[in-house]
From TrEMBL:
Residue intervals of the Disease resistance protein At4g27190-like leucine-rich repeats domain: 723-838
UniProt superkingdom: Eukaryota
Domain Disease resistance protein winged helix: 280-347
Lineage of the organism: Eukaryota, Viridiplantae, Streptophyta, Embryophyta, Tracheophyta
UniProt keyword Nucleotide-binding, yes or no: yes
Database matches in PANTHER family: DISEASE RESISTANCE PROTEIN RPS2-LIKE (PTHR33463:SF209), NB-ARC DOMAIN-CONTAINING PROTEIN-RELATED (PTHR33463)
Pfam families: LRR_8, LRR_RPS2, NB-ARC, WHD_DRP
Ranges for domain NB-ARC: 34-191
InterPro entries in alphabetical order: Apaf_helical, At4g27190-like_LRR, Leu-rich_rpt, LRR_dom_sf, NB-ARC, P-loop_NTPase, Plant_NBS-LRR, WH-like_DNA-bd_sf
Keywords annotated in UniProt: ATP-binding, Nucleotide-binding, Plant defense, Repeat
The protein's name: Putative disease resistance protein
Amino acid sequence: MLGKRVGDVIPLEKVELQNVEFNSSTDSEPRLQRIMGFIEDVEIRNIGIWGMGGIGKSRTLKLLNNRLVESHMFDIVIWVTVSGEGSRRKVQNDIAERLKYNKKDMSDNGLRAFISNKLSVMKFLLILDDIWEKIDLCDVGIPILNQDNGCKVLLTTRDLDVCRQMETNEEIQMEKLSEEEAWSLFNEKVGDVVMSPSIEPIARDIVKKCSGLPLAIIVIGSSLRKIRYVSVWRNTLRKLQLPSTPQIKGMEKAVFSCLRISYDRLPNDFERNLFLYCSLYPEDDEILTTELVEYCWLEGYIQGVDSIEEARDDGRHMVMNLVDASLLERGDDEEHIKMHDIIRDFALKEASGFLVKTGKHVKYPPEEREWLESQKISLMGCSLGCLLERPNCESLSTLLLQYNSQLTMIPDSFFKCMHSLCILDLSQTEIKSLPSSLCNLGNLRGLYLKDCRNLEELPSQVGALKQLEVLDLGGKIAINLGGETAIKYLPRVVGELTRLKRLIVGFQHHNCWRKTEEWNMKLRVPTGIIPKLPYLEELSLYVKDGPLCVDKEQWDDESMEVVVEELCRLEHLTYLDAYFPNVECLEHFLRQRKSVWCRRFRFRVGTPIRDPSLYWHNQQWERCLVYKGGFGTSHAAIMETLAHCSYFLLGYHLTIRKLSELGLANMNELKECWIIRCDKMKTLFDGDEQQETCALLPNLKKLQIEILPELRSLFDGPLLPGSLSKLTELRLQYCDNLKKVFQLGIIRQLCSLESLEVRYCLTVEQIIEIEEEMSMSVASHTHNVISYNNDRLILPNIKKIILSSLPELVSICRGFSNFEWPSLETIYIWDCPKLKSLSFLSNGTNIVAPALERIDCESEWWEALEWEDNDIKQRLQPLFSPF
């Protein structure tokens, strides 16, 4: 250590442990090991540990501190509990005290110089516990951390944003305890009584309710220590199952007070209100962020925005702030968030005027008194069969009744005393009509009727909802797409809702194969309505797709051309889901529209014949073009739209011979592509467009090709670097002129491919074509393209191969086939009678697919396989899974 003086070294000091403990060897060891790994890494200097209050951050660091006493990794470990409004002076004083300097009258700058001088000759670890805002370490006097001095700073916080402000090199989120860890900790606190046969089942339910939060487990476990009365255990569980749990001994003081600090420190009431609003959702529910944000915007929690898009952006920012503050959790995907059970209990206690009764066990509506006292009511997912005739609830602003599958009727006077109601959600109920008292909802801003499959029409009283900004008659599949209502026509009364900003309509599907009454398709969207809605930002006019759904039979093309003309006048559109009868109609819209390009859209263009196979299951794509039944080479409007697309379906084109006719540069943003029944298409790309110096589909992740009778190759000619580099799924079906799926030079580009599926291609002989002479030349060409030094790695990430109904398939990889398949997990082979060997799985003596888990195939086929080495068959035999 440079300049180190023996007399300056201060002995390490243990941190006094609080009596709130848990088994460090069982519960904390993985966390400690991970932190120790970062401490030992010479390139990491600042480490942040973050998580909700009560998750065990401080306790883990105290155990770490005391372990470091024995390791002699540092000359000194300095622990500072910052908390609350921890000032620079407070931090300096604590550090100075640890350095055995107790003069209190030194100036801030003097203390800074003292600390800097002392620590500059030591290898130190500074632990800053419970930070709420950025601390300038230079102002405190902390020397610059570098690899030479080996010094480290370790901090804990509830807010990930604090880690960012402190410029930590690594952030560790303290996760909830696993089920096993939680049970172990609870056992430790409660004692042997928990093993009683009459108590253990109740105890396990109690632990589940704590959802892995150590502080809650400790508090509740301590309150039940050595108690053998089953009635007390049952009562504790019952209290935990109530909407709020402060009556359990210690919960208010230890747990809720801890959470209240985080809640009180939120920057404004808007974020606090959004946080509380989350408690209206059922326990353990995955909350759709866009839905939550839209509710909060309509409630007035998001202000200072000029559009729904801005409200969503602002709302998402608020939601992520709450996630960073450990008050919300990320959901199973990017679109959802969750609320911890204990935090939800806290939110319901903090919220004023919230009435929340959710779940199938709720069979009866709230009593009159409860309606009177409520401002927000959530009855999501209940088993309500009826409602009160006329509840008195003048202060009610939110009423959430969605997912009540037994609710078939709303009393006629139900809404008469709900003059303040702002949000009404009746989605996925079985109601057939809306009551006349709907006209009393003069302040309603959002009406949600998604997937009300029995709702056949909107009443004339809808016209009285003059403040309505959102009318959603769509479906649950996606926030912006139509769904399954029984509504045939958009009523003219919608034209009176002049403040409407978002209109989503999922019309009833007209099945012309069945004998039903004749529909007047001109009335799907009566002309003259759209011009009366000048503030529309988001519009979806959609018939739920299905195997027998063809746009031509769902719309009147002549009237839709008039509607498209009306759409051109809308100045604020950011989302549009619409049907264009032909390319010329789309061209007219693109040239005449007053709005800029929609951020999100779903355009359906063209009218092919009916075909049950043309059914695109995924309907939640937001920049999507479905082009059916095209012909000729007039592609200008399609190409312009395609340049903005993430998802593209091309079907029934009568003349197109290759996908690249639409321009490679226009496909740079595509993520998914489906090509079906283009009878003249021979290849996707043949090299003629090379002058464009453009990689082929550089962002494409999924490619599905079906029923191309003239397809002879996927790609002809060399591909430029970056082509297909993100493709993860490839599916080929019914391509009856295709003999070889890939050439080696092309397959080397597919470094991200995870799933390959080839079915019902009657002439396919090989999956990968390899010729000795081409192998060498292509390998040298592609070495500069793909960063693999090992020529034996061609599909390094392939996990699944499915080969089905390929009567001429002879080999998967014939010729020079000494390749490795490091990620391959599953092989599925069915009805491939000429495929006699799985030699591609071995190099003669060794299996080259170390991750392989199963081979699904027919027993007779498996037994008839030819093996170069019988030992390979014996080693693969356990993976064989017969149909």
